[in-house]
Write a structure and sequence with these properties.
Blueprint: H1 14-22, H2 29-39, H3 41-65, H4 69-79, H5 83-89, H6 100-127, H7 129-133, H8 136-141, H9 149-175, H10 180-207, H11 211-234, H12 244-250, H13 263-280, H14 306-334, H15 339-344, H16 347-353, H17 361-385, H18 387-393, H19 397-401, H20 407-441, H21 445-456, H22 458-474, H23 482-495, H24 503-507, H25 524-547
Helix pairs in contact: 2-3, 2-9, 3-6, 3-9, 3-23, 5-11, 6-9, 6-10, 6-11, 6-12, 9-10, 10-11, 10-12, 10-13, 14-17, 14-20, 17-20, 17-21, 17-22, 17-23, 20-21, 20-22, 22-23, 22-25
Length: 553
């Protein structure tokens, strides 16, 4: 007679025991890092190139604008103690004895830090939380890789991306003749800020119930950091030290470097990484610590249509962009009253604001503000249109297209929502500029005037969105190239004069054909032509979408 001990489970087979032993480790992270770099090779080149180009082109432009001590002193007088400038740029380290390097940092450092932070947030979410949603992470975890290998690989990838960006920035500044200490300090501050917000994204990935929510939470942290820095810089500076963005500026590149500040983002990133590990142990794989709110048992009449679904999918993005656009618009408006003084002693800056051949300096500045709003909203339009690619890649388009819903109706719904969002954002941005300008000048007519001026650039923005749709329709794998179009119109719009671009290159940007209002006559011809281009692109792309395979191209 034989007996069996039912209290002790039979030992697992060898491979399973091996995987269990490695659970909780980081085994295999180097393999996953290679996968991260393989998948993001194009994105990394675009991000590093874009950030490096922004810094270097701005450096070249500022060297031309502030080529004499008198011009530097004039800039210092206008920027120091100016609350509007401090909110947008920072405390202005080194402006008491201004150099070109100090002015460069005051002009671009905060925006460059934000760009690098965005790159890190997007990259971490893409390779951690989004992988769980797509079930690819589950396949990888079925192999003998450690539980935290994916997160470690993503962080290592972000570190490489930040260091590559820093090398491009530092190398470019050194080759441009800037001081070595300041160049290296600024480059390292970029990496420090990027790594810190990568840690933030790791934590939000544990908390949120989806990758989009994780990205949204991380962006909220970034926005709060900007606000804390702005309030602190205008006040006594105490609140600023709560902001990681301030740490990037507090290193004082080109203004007596304080290297010890680099310790703050590094320690913060390690703390956030440890916190993410702790949180990961308290949630189910594929779910966040904050559970998803159960939806209604039945969809309403609106949500059961392709247009209603598109509205539901894009409303969060529209609200997020709306808050940012209004704030930026108000910032532009409140410095309207000081523009003429800012350019009075600087003929190069005056030439920049008068390049559009608009009547007064103030009108030219407001026309430039309208164009800036259009450039920003171009980013929303591209992201809204490319939501189609996201739905297709995640196989959520298939169930919809399996119903009597046509491809044209499905895609047209997303395009209509993107167009409506574009108009709302432009109108809100123009309203913000107008309110800010009216507050400082006392001229309430600026409000409606700027709402109209912002809406005038809508056809140019729509051209960028139509190009994105055409890329999605014909070459979906390359649809991300639509962002290159956004980068090109930004370079032409902001730096065309400084770079002395030829006329044919400037004419490639649709924004060059929009009448610069206020200050110049509103001519309908260019707007009608741009609208016709948009219609033609959409019709051709719609025909292409109907003829290609969904989900296989």
């Amino acid at each position: 007679m034989t007996t069996t001990d039912v209290r002790r489970p039979a030992p697992a087979p060898g491979p399973i025991r091996h995987a269990q032993a490695e659970r909780g480790s980081i085994r295999g992270w180097t393999w996953l890092l290679a996968l991260v770099l393989r998948r993001d090779r194009v994105r990394l080149l675009v991000w590093a190139g874009a950030v490096g180009a922004l810094v270097l082109v701005s450096a070249s432009s500022i060297e031309g604008l502030y080529s004499t001590p008198d011009k530097l002193a004039t800039y210092s007088q206008l920027a120091e103690g100016n609350a509007a400038v401090i909110v947008q740029a920072g405390p202005g380290y080194g402006l008491e004895q201004p150099t070109v390097g100090a002015v460069l940092m005051n002009e671009i450092s905060i925006w460059t830090l934000i760009l690098v932070s965005l790159m890190s947030i997007f990259m971490i979410t893409r390779h951690t939380r989004a992988e769980e949603e797509s079930d690819r992470a589950e396949i990888l975890r079925a192999t003998p890789v450690g539980r935290y290998a994916g997160a470690v690989a993503a962080m290592a990838g972000v570190l490489i991306a930040n260091m590559a960006t820093s090398l491009v920035v530092a190398g470019g500044l050194l080759l441009s003749g800037f001081e070595a200490g300041g160049s290296v300090a600024f480059a390292l501050s970029l990496s420090g800020c990027g790594i810190f917000f990568a840690g933030v994204a790791l934590v939000t990935g544990q908390v949120a119930s989806s990758s989009r929510a994780a990205t949204g939470l991380a962006l909220i942290v970034l926005g709060v950091s900007f606000v804390l820095r702005a309030i602190g810089d205008v006040g006594n500076g105490v609140l600023s030290w709560l902001s990681p963005l301030h740490w990037g500026q507090a290193i004082r590149a080109f203004a007596g470097e304080r290297w010890w500040v680099l310790v703050l983002p590094i320690v913060g990133a390690f703390a956030l990484g440890w916190l993410s590990v702790v949180l990961a142990g308290h949630r189910d794989f594929g779910a966040g610590m904050v559970p998803q709110r159960p939806g209604d048992p039945a969809a309403g009449p609106m949500l059961s249509t392709p247009f209603g679904l598109a509205m539901r999918l894009q409303r969060g993005a529209v609200l997020g962009w709306l808050a940012g656009i209004v704030v930026i618009g108000v910032f532009y408006g409140v410095i309207t009253d000081e523009v003429e003084q800012m350019v009075r002693d600087n003929p190069d800056m005056e030439a920049f604001f008068t390049q559009a051949d608009v009547g007064s300096i103030t009108d030219s500045f407001l026309a430039t503000a309208a164009m800036m709003l259009g450039l920003l909203v171009s980013g929303y339009v591209v992201s809204g249109v490319l939501r189609l690619r996201t739905e297709e890649a995640n196989v959520r388009a298939d169930p919809i297209l399996a119903t009597p819903t046509s491809r044209a109706r499905w895609a047209g719904s997303h395009l209509l929502v993107a167009a409506m969002g574009m108009l709302v954002l432009l109108a809100a941005g123009g309203f913000g500029v107008g309110v800010g300008a009216a507050a400082v000048t006392g001229d309430s007519s600026r409000v409606l005037q700027m709402v109209g001026a912002a809406l005038v650039v809508a056809p140019a923005v729509a051209v960028i969105g139509a190009l994105a749709y055409a890329l999605f329709a014909f070459v979906p794998h390359w649809s991300m190239l639509a962002w290159v179009g956004v980068a090109l119109v930004v370079v032409v719009g902001l730096l065309g004069e400084a770079l002395n671009l030829p006329d044919w290159a400037r004419e490639l940007s649709p924004f060059q054909h929009v009448p610069p209002v206020p200050g110049s006559a509103l001519t309908a011809g260019p707007l009608v032509a741009l609208t016709a281009i948009v219609a033609a692109l959409v019709l051709v792309a719609m025909a292409g979408l109907v003829r290609r395979d969904i989900g296989r191209s």
